[in-house]
Structure to design on (461 residues):
């Protein structure tokens, strides 16, 4: 099996017989993907509740921000660091069965946590190991779902499906803090663990119902199973190295996700620096509404077949909104209202960008190799988020906030325009992120020259 540099755009997919629209049973495909979507959302709800509750419990027990941060790190990093390995599994074995294994593995981790908690033998290091292991299994679930969608759903429906999925995730993100907090109060940590376990069992049951249909058409090629695991692990890297334009697009989006991670990392400190936790909860709800709004746009309007213009528009909007944050302190009485409005529009724009990005990869990359290629893509793309978390906080704490405090290095220059005081360094950093997004967008458009993204189809020797 060899790689060729034959290139085609999204419209050429049909001619190369790799479009999911070739599925003659599209209505059954929608029902199947709905079952998978509901299963994924249910398990995602349980996982987010557990991660949220564990973080709060660990902080209350230790009063350590470091341990609190380690829980978040353990819940995030293994899923993306091991994404290429997960991708190999997805191209070699039944993707539906792997999805069940992912749910089962994460459920067992929650079961062990429940046992340790009830017997009062739970330790921080145990939590980190189990949360990290659960992160790996949840990575299997999410990557399986991502590559199963284009194998089941018509290509014309992919954007709408992403809209529905994004809307479900957005709603869950809105309700999780309140739901998890209420569960802790009324049922304790054991109740949260039990809910998580039940969510995984329910998800497994739903997937088992459609497993037979999934195994009939899950997008894999039987020939892929003949290749060695090592070659398959390296395949995604070789694929992207051969396809330089697609790799350039990946690097461009990785820089955008880095800015997005930095913006998210500083969101809570910004609100708390000027108000209280009640305001934080209110603005968080507004942000969740913004995610839902963006998802509704995708669900109702799929946009043009070439998704790049939608991504460009969304990123331009995000850049302008971040630059606009630098002016929120000019009218102090409206600062929170302005921030809420900006974050709502920013969340809506980001959901549209993220949804279109997923559709591009689902349609550009042949289905039989999406596990490996998207595994590498996930590892690179989402590595930007934890790096941003590590960089943004120290930059603001030690550079921008001191510089825009009374008598700071920038107080007599930038401070004369945007003001000085708590939170001003963060919004100045946001403005820099907006400028970076805008410059990155202009450079990519200039270098890409309006040309379509390319793919490297597999051809037998």
């Amino acid at each position: 099996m060899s790689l060729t540099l034959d290139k085609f755009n999204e419209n050429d997919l049909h001619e190369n017989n790799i479009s999911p629209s070739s599925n003659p049973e599209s209505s059954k495909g929608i029902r199947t993907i709905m079952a998978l979507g509901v299963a994924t959302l249910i398990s995602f709800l349980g996982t987010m509740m557990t991660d949220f509750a564990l973080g709060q419990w660990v902080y209350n027990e230790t009063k350590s921000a470091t341990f609190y941060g380690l829980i978040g790190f353990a819940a995030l990093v293994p899923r993306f660091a091991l994404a290429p390995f997960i991708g190999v599994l997805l191209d070699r074995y039944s993707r539906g069965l792997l999805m069940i294994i992912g749910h089962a593995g994460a459920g067992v981790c929650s079961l062990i946590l429940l046992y340790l908690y009830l017997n009062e033998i739970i330790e921080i290091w145990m939590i980190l190991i189990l949360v990290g292991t659960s992160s790996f299994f949840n990575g299997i679930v999410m990557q399986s779902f991502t590559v199963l969608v284009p194998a089941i759903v018509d290509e014309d429906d992919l954007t709408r499906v992403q809209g529905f999925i994004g809307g479900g995730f957005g709603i869950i993100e809105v309700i999780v803090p309140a739901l998890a907090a209420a569960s802790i109060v009324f049922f304790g940590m054991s109740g949260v663990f039990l809910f998580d376990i039940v969510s995984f069992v329910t998800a497994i049951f739903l997937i088992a119902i459609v497993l037979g249909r999934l195994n009939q058409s899950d997008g894999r090629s039987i020939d892929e199973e003949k290749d060695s695991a090592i070659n398959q692990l390296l395949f995604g890297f070789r694929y992207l190295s051969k396809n330089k334009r697609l790799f350039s697009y990946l690097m461009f989006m990785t820089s955008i996700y880095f800015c997005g991670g930095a913006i998210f990392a500083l969101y809570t400190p910004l609100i708390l620096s000027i108000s209280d936790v009640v305001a934080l909860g209110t603005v968080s709800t507004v942000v969740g509404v913004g995610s839902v709004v963006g998802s509704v746009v995708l669900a109702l309007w799929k946009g043009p077949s070439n998704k790049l213009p939608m991504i460009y528009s969304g990123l331009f909007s995000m850049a302008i909104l971040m630059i606009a944050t630098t002016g929120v302190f000019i009218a102090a009485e409206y600062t929170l209202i302005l921030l809420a409005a900006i974050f709502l529009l920013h969340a809506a724009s980001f959901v549209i960008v993220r949804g279109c990005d997923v559709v591009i990869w689902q349609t550009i990359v042949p289905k039989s190799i999406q596990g490996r290629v998207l595994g590498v893509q996930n590892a690179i793309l989402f590595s930007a988020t934890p790096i941003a978390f590590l960089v943004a906080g120290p930059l603001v704490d030690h550079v921008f906030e001191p510089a825009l405090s009374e008598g700071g290095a920038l107080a007599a220059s930038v401070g004369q325009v945007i003001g000085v005081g708590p939170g001003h360094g963060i919004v100045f950093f946001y403005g820099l992120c907006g400028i970076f997004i805008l410059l990155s967008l202009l450079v990519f458009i200039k270098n890409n020259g309006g040309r379509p993204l390319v793919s490297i189809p597999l051809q037998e020797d």
The first helix runs from residue 26 to 62.
